[in-house]
């Protein structure tokens, strides 16, 4: 059973120089996430370069993650398919190979109506027993899941959480006012992480956590313990790095940050290419400055968390 709370990294997929899965570096990163205290692992999102992965590679990543985490945290797979039948097939296959939850995007490429989107979500939810997080990101994916649409989705008991990425953090309050604890709400925008937690988000589906797991979890734990000022000190340092997540090249950016912290490589899968020229220099400059001023963290793992 997934406890929908805490920090859940949308992990990157590690590749070798010859474009194979780099399971050695993948394991090193996942173990760093676990050591930092993350609360779940999400595979196959945008950061995971899911659109370039084969079904076989996704299966390898699920099974490898399950072997590494050994039940410490749930392993969740993202679903972003072109058709309802494909999405159902991926969901059922993920359940069969051991995934413990799903993160679900609206239909890709086709801009579905509200009714079509709700029907799509219900069809997938009814095809599996796995708990589901709905990913609401109209900025990038052009479909907003409205409060009325979530009303219709309450009949699916396994739809249990929302990744809220509208960029309007007050939507967290609207969701909480409307649904109480029926849906757990996660912020999905790194640069709104602390603010979202302060106003009531249950968790954070994070990106820069891939390179900086301890700093991300520390912010979450400090906020939940009411230590906002301490959390702000880390967050203020973190913001220039977090801004690397809100870019079309977020994968390349975050992989460069993983190189800096020793838990990743910058290998990406074409058509993505490593950053070059002035933009590469700019991103490395942001990372280098942050590394020179990396904060000393408090003993965040032993804080008493408040509800």
Describe this structure in a few short sentences.
The chain has 307 residues and is of the alpha/beta class. It is 45% helix and 11% strand.
How would you explain this protein's 3D organization?
It is globular, with a radius of gyration of 18 Å. Helix content is 45%, strand content 11%. The chain has helices spanning 23-36, 55-69, 84-97, 114-125, 138-141, 147-153, 170-179, 193-198, 213-224, 228-242, 250-261, 277-292; strands at residues 6-9, 41-43, 75-79, 101-104, 132-136, 159-164, 184-187, 203-206. The protein has one domain (6-302): Alpha-Beta Barrel (TIM Barrel), CATH 3.20.20. The mean pLDDT is 96. The chain contains twelve helices and eight strands. Helix 2 (55-69) packs parallel to helix 3 (84-97), helix 9 packs antiparallel against helix 10 (228-242) and helix 11 packs across helix 12. The chain is α/β, with parallel strands linked by helices and 307 residues long. The longest helix is centred in the C-terminal third of the chain and has 16 residues, at 277-292. Strand 7, helix 8 (193-198) and strand 8 form a beta-alpha-beta unit. The protein has an eight-stranded parallel beta sheet.
């Amino acid at each position: 059973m997934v406890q929908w709370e805490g920090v859940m990294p949308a992990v990157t997929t590690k590749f070798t120089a010859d474009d194979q899965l780099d399971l050695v570096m993948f394991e090193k990163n996942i173990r760093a996430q676990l050591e930092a205290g993350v609360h779940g692992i999400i595979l196959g999102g945008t950061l995971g370069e899911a659109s370039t992965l084969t079904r076989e590679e996704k299966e390898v990543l699920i099974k490898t993650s399950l072997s590494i985490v050994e039940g410490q945290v749930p392993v969740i797979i993202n679903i972003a398919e072109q058709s309802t039948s494909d999405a159902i097939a991926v969901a059922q296959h993920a359940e069969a190979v051991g995934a413990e939850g799903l993160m679900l995007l609206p239909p890709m490429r086709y801009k579905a109506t509200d009714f079509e989107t709700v029907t799509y979500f219900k069809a997938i939810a009814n095809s599996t027993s796995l708990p589901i997080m709905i990913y609401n990101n109209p900025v990038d994916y052009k479909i907003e899941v409205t409060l009325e649409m979530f009303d219709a989705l309450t009949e699916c008991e396994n739809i249990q959480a929302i990744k809220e990425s509208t960029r309007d953090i007050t939507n967290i309050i609207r969701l909480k006012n409307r649904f109480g604890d029926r849906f757990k709400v996660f912020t999905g925008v790194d640069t709104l992480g602390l603010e979202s937690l302060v106003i009531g988000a249950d968790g954070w589906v994070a990106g820069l956590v891939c390179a900086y797991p301890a700093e991300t979890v520390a912010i979450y734990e400090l906020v939940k313990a009411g230590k906002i000022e301490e959390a702000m000190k880390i967050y203020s340092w973190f913001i220039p790095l977090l801004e690397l997540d809100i870019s079309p090249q977020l994968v390349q950016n975050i992989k460069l940050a993983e190189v800096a912290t020793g838990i990743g490589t910058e290998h990406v899968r074409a058509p993505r290419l490593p950053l070059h020229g002035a933009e590469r220099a700019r991103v490395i400059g942001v990372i280098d400055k942050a590394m020179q001023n990396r904060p000393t963290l408090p003993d965040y793992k032993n804080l008493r968390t408040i509800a």
